Amino acid sequence: MKKLITNGAFLVDVRTSSEFSQGNVKGSANIPLDQIQNQLSKFRGKEHIIVFCRSGNRSSQAKAILEQNGFTNIINGGSWLDVNDAINK
To answer: Which of 14, 25, 53, 86 is catalytic?
Structure first.
């Protein structure tokens, strides 16, 4: 995952905006799970997409929604802390 992040993967935090404001991965976009379907245009043209949340549950759902809409380059990064750790290793 670190290599993908280093190579410019689109990092998407699918937690609520209030959760995001309490701590987040530097450079990540906040697109809450309930808005993914309406924000598909933000994902188009991205080579690699890493979705994450608090525990990995909502990001799993986000991955499924994106795959149902034709995206094949999605990785469930698990929790935002896992992704943050991968960046800082």
So the answer is: 53
